[in-house]
Amino acid sequence: GENVEQHPSTLSVQEGDSAVIKCTYSDSASNYFPWYKQELGKGPQLIIDIRSNVGEKKDQRIAVTLNKTAKHFSLHITETQPEDSAVYFCAASRNTGNQFYFGTGTSLTVIP
Amino acid sequence: DAGITQSPRHKVTETGTPVTLRCHQTENHRYMYWYRQDPGHGLRLIHYSYGVKDTDKGEVSDGYSVSRSKTEDFLLTLESATSSQTSVYFCAISRTELRDTEAFFGQGTRLTVV
Predict the structure, then answer these.
(1) What is the DSSP string of A38-50?
(2) pLDDT of A31 strictly over 60
(3) What is the percent of chain B with per-residue pLDDT over 90, rounded to a whole number?
(4) What is the enclosing helix (H) or strand (E) of A28?
(5) A89–B43: do the CB atoms touch at under 8 Å?
(6) B104 in contact with A, Cβ within 8 Å
(7) Between vectors from CA B41 to CA A91 and to CA B14, what angle results, nearest 5°?
(8) Does A95 touch chain B (CB under 8 A)?
(9) What is the DSSP letter of A8?
(10) Residue B34 near chain A (CB below 8 Å)
(11) Which of A5, A75, B3, B82 could staple B27 via S-S, CB 3.0–4.6 A?
């Protein structure tokens, strides 16, 4: 099956700085890569995703990049705000079976 | 929350007792999933369903069973709960089954086995 690795496990940044979280995957058949944000006591919430036919996608302060050759993808958050503090998960999936494989999460703290 | 309701939200049970968690969706989606979340492990798939009475195992299915008799309900059963099954359990649904697959999660059930 797929193996998704995520780094770093914890990340602290000053408000206004950028944050980058990186993931690698093992299954070359994976073609869908979502990112989830989880706040304390809540379920993961989809914040952005990218498909294998695209190299980069941006939504306001959040962007995701994908390198299929190297099998890695990254989440970039610019101009961080305290409300960005949460745990972020990357995931990988392929159409067959629609199973999602998750990374182990990154706890992001934005220091005011 | 994509129309997903998990019940109960919290439960404490004793070792060896059976436990059933319920996931209910209001949007008639085909795919439903049960994940468990543990520190250092992220989210791991227990079982999933691709239709009524159609289910399959995930990566951590031992000790768990599921049933889906109606499109809207997906039940997760711990036949004989163990302390290692203390976890937060999340139900998820896939909005589509085509290439544009997205998964949305419920609020979770915190289960403690004592």
Answers:
(1) E-TTS--EEEEEE
(2) yes
(3) 75
(4) none
(5) yes
(6) yes
(7) 125
(8) yes
(9) -
(10) no
(11) B3
CA B50 to chain centroid, in Å, comes to 13
Q: How far is A16 from chain B (nearest CA, A)?
A: 28
In whole angstroms, give the CA distance from residue B99 to residue A15: 37
Exposure string for B36-75, b = 16+ CB within 10 A, e = fewer: bbeeeebbbbbbbbbeeeebeebebbeebebbbeeebbbb
Taken in order A110, B4, B64, B56, is the CA torsion positive or negative? negative
- How many Cβ atoms from other residues are within 10 Å of residue A67's Cβ? 12
Chain A nearest CA to B39, separation (Å): 8
**B79 DSSP 8-state letter:** S
Token pair for residue B53?
């009475």
Q: What is the largest distance, in Å, between two alpha-carbon atoms of chain B?
A: 43
pLDDT, one tens digit per residue, over B74-94 is: 999 999 999 999 999 999 998
Residue B101 has pLDDT above 90, yes or no: no
Nearest alpha-carbon partner for A64 in A43, A85, A83, A91: A91
Q: Where are any strands of DSSP class E within A1-112?
A: 4-7, 10-14, 19-25, 32-38, 45-51, 56-59, 62-67, 72-77, 86-93, 100-102, 106-111
In whole angstroms, give the CA distance from residue B111 to residue B17. 13
Token readout for A42 is 């809540």
